[in-house]
Write a structure and sequence with these properties.
This protein is α/β, with parallel strands linked by helices. Among the domains are: 54 residues, no CATH class; 69 residues, Crystal structure of tRNA isopentenylpyrophosphate transferase (bh2366) domain (Helix Hairpins). The strands form 3 sheets. A 6-stranded parallel sheet has the order 5-2-6-1-9-10, sandwiched between helices. A two-stranded antiparallel sheet has the order 3-4. It has a two-stranded antiparallel ribbon with strand order 7-8. The radius of gyration is 20 Å and the shape is globular. About 2% of the residues have low confidence.
Length: 304
């Protein structure tokens, strides 16, 4: 098979970003981020951008889809695939190797499984109609539109349910859907569970020491609501609860650490589901550069 993309995926804190930077340096590549939160500006520590890891051998490895929208702006799966397609083409035209890495399962699935996505109007009259329908009925409608539903968390929140329905309906009705046509050689990192838990704990401690709370305070000062912080996910949700004095520091740390561990489990469940649906993933027990390089060189003649 001729591959035109290399993907490095894995659960949070597995070391995929640093590994991808090393591989991109070796194979003359550029990195496309598949992270639903790293697109937001000034959300650095909580989203784990770790931009210093893109500096390797005295130079910055080019990266894309990081710091491209404001925290109060809308970003969704369609916009991600649109940005990805444009960036993928630009990198390929420069005769460089495109690398995709990140931990957002839906974003990775959209590319690796060639989702057909149509542009969606989230402020349409249809949205107003859906808002009048009970959550249970919305969930049933979404399953009818998408029997192979990937993101079951959509069923827990009415706003996300409505957005998912609008996307599904637009995709059915739009013949000019956006599609990312790629053939990816995909490497997965799956550390031992005990080792991963230790890495998650160490990383969380460092992030709190290095200003994660202050980062969230600044977002609040800019006018980002605590409700919006909850939407941004774990780190922002729990630090937001701490800032509202609904959790002590210790409770915030313990609950956040537990939630991140559960998130890592859900990521692995998602990746295994992708495998069952036909995505080939070459798994490594750690983010080992030599092993990953040898795999790419043996399987991907285009990138030798």
């Amino acid at each position: 098979m001729i591959y035109n993309l290399i993907t490095v995926l894995g659960p949070t804190a597995c070391g995929k970003t640093k590994l991808t930077a090393k591989l991109a340096d070796h194979f003359n590549g550029e990195i496309i981020s598949a992270d639903s939160r790293q697109v937001y500006k000034r959300m650095n520590i909580g989203t784990g951008k770790d931009l210093q890891e893109f500096f390797f051998n005295g130079r910055q490895i080019p990266y894309h889809l990081i710091d491209i929208v404001e925290p109060n702006e809308e970003f969704n799966l369609f916009l991600f695939t649109e940005h990805f397609s444009k960036t993928f083409q630009e990198i390929s035209e420069k005769k460089k190797t495109p690398f995709l890495t990140g931990g957002t399962g839906m974003y990775l699935s959209a590319i690796l499984q060639n989702y057909q996505l149509a542009k969606t109007d989230f402020n349409s009259e249809r949205k107003n109609e859906l808002e009048k329908i009970p959550v249970e009925a919305l969930a049933a409608l979404l399953f009818l539109l998408n029997p192979k539903l990937h993101n079951t968390t959509d069923l827990l929140d009415k706003d996300r349910l409505i957005k998912a329905i609008l996307v599904a309906e637009a995709s059915l009705n739009d013949e000019a859907a956006v599609s990312a046509k790629v053939s990816s050689f995909t490497i997965g990192i799956q550390p031992d569970r005990k080792i991963l838990k230790e890495k998650i704990s160490e990383r969380l401690t460092l992030r709190l020491q290095n200003g994660m709370i202050e980062e969230v305070e600044q977002l609040v000062a800019e006018g980002i609501s605590f409700e919006k912080l909850n939407f941004f996910g774990l780190e922002y949700r729990y630090v937001g609860l701490y800032l509202q004095k609904k959790l002590t520091y210790n409770d915030m740390f313990q609950k956040l650490r537990g939630a991140i561990n559960q998130f890592a489990k859900r990521q692995m469940t998602w990746f295994r589901k992708m495998e069952r649906e036909g995505v080939s993933i070459y798994w490594l027990p750690e983010a080992d550069f030599s092993e990953a390089k040898n795999l790419i060189e043996s399987k991907c003649p285009l990138f030798r």
